[in-house]
Amino acid sequence: MNSKKHGGPTGLLVMAYGTPEAMEGVRPYLTHIRHGHEPSDEAVEDLKHRYGLIGGPSPLYQTTVDQMKALEERLNALGGDYRGYLGMKHWNPYIPEAVKGMAADGVERAVAITLAPHYSTMSIAQYLNYVREGLSGIDRPLDIVCVKSYHDELFFIDALEEKLREAMVAVPADQREDIPVVFTAHSLPEKILKADDPYREQLLDTSRLVAERFGGMNWRFAFTSQGETKDKWLGPTLAETFHQLAAEGHKAVMCCTVGFVSEHLETLFDFDIEGKQDAEERGLTFYRAAALGTSPKYIAALADVVRKAEAGDSGVETARLPEDDLQAPTYPTY
Predict the structure, then answer these.
(1) 290-313 pLDDT tens trace
(2) Pair (25, 50) in one structural domain
(3) Which of 19, 145, 234, 328 is the least crowded, having the fewest Cβ atoms under 10 Å away?
(4) What does the pLDDT look like over 263-286, one tens digit per residue?
(5) C-alpha of 268 from chain center
(6) Would 328 be classed as within a structural domain?
(7) Is the dihedral of CA 50, 56, 57, 63 positive or negative?
(8) Quick one: how far is CA 214 from the chain centroid?
(9) Residues 12 and 106 reside in one and the same domain
(10) DSSP 34-54
(11) What is the pLDDT of residue 228?
């Protein structure tokens, strides 16, 4: 993307999963996730209950807004001319609406980045296809370069290392050297591996790069948030990993998510409530590194990736829309 060919600011489309801002939004939120299929009353009440346990609803929406604003400010402080737009996969403002909003504002070029560092045809490719949907029917050309992944970006690894070191302070000094660390991310159906989907390998690469910063770390990887479908999902689960650690004689465990970059239901409930209970039932003291949120190092990572993508740096894997073809299977996740 050559900004000299265009006038005006560069659009900055920051994309995330989305979550309702109030309990009243739970039913339409679940309906959108289920591709228009109405959820059962039981499913709605279950999600409301879990939101209630974390002081709900989820803080994800506001954190995403804060991340987008921080990234926009960082880029412009570095001499750029960016105008930020927020696009959600499953909540307002939806990604296609955000794209059409950019076009209506006269934006001619944009960089899109998802607040999920690891590429999968089932996740990031679907976000980018929503970008393509937004481009259809607009009255003026809009050139969008989409970041596909940034799992090994230096500042991203720096940010994860920082959060993990901060969390280690809570561990008694005589246990820090030996405590096992479990890196985690959201599971996906195993069938993605048949198409050489890079998701699992990118997650393991990220984990290895962080572990190397600590030298000799005892680490492993677990997947969380497996869906309740007929398909087999990537594992091992967190509970299975805790069981193995206890069997090996460990007395404590440190969890560090490399896939989730914001605190939300799947950290505040799945880790801090359910995960902690699973660990303690197996005799493990549970510790967790905080999600990145608006960590200055994480925002620096996003800014570095956006600038490289706009400059056409070959070190950042991108897709240019609407030209590039993306394969995004729609496996059911409900």
Answers:
(1) 999 999 999 999 999 999 999 999
(2) yes
(3) 328
(4) 999 999 999 999 999 999 999 999
(5) 15
(6) no
(7) negative
(8) 24
(9) yes
(10) TTTPPPPHHHHHHHHHHHHHT
(11) 77
Q: Using one digit for the tens of pLDDT, what is the confidence trace for 41-81?
A: 999 999 999 999 999 889 999 999 999 999 999 999 999 99
Averaged pLDDT, 22-44: 95
Same domain, 215 and 305: no
Q: Are residues 309 and 186 in the same domain?
A: no
Q: Are residues 248 and 281 in the same domain?
A: yes
Q: Give the CATH number, domain containing residue 217.
A: 3.40.50.1400
Q: What is the DSSP letter of 94?
A: B
> What's the one-letter identity of residue 92?
N
Q: Count of alpha carbons within 13 Å of 228, Cβ hemisphere only?
A: 3
Is 328's pLDDT higher than 80?
Answer: no
Alpha carbons 201 and 164: distance in angstroms, whole number: 21
Task: Respond yes or no on whether the N-terminal peptide bond of residue 332 is cis (omega within 30° of 0).
Answer: no
C-beta of residue 209 within 8 angstroms of C-beta of residue 152: yes
Tell me what pLDDT residue 14 has. Answer: 98
Q: Measured between alpha carbons, how far is residue 156 from residues 58, 129, 264, 293, 308 in Å?
A: 24, 25, 19, 12, 14
pLDDT surpassing 50 at residue 334: no
Question: Who's near 27: CB < 8 A, 6+ residues apart?
Answer: 38, 39, 44
DSSP designation for 104: H
* Token code pair at residue 145: 């370069």
Distance in angstroms (rounded) separating the CA atoms of residues 49 and 55: 10
Q: Are residues 189 and 99 in the same domain?
A: no
Number of domains observed in the structure of the chain: 2
Give the SS3 label for residue 216: coil
* Rounded alpha-carbon distances, angstroms, from residue 150 to 153, 200, 259, 280: 5, 14, 11, 34
Q: Are residues 27 and 142 in the same domain?
A: yes
Per the listing, tokens 């009243």 go with 24
Based on the domain organization, do 8 and 144 belong to the same domain?
yes
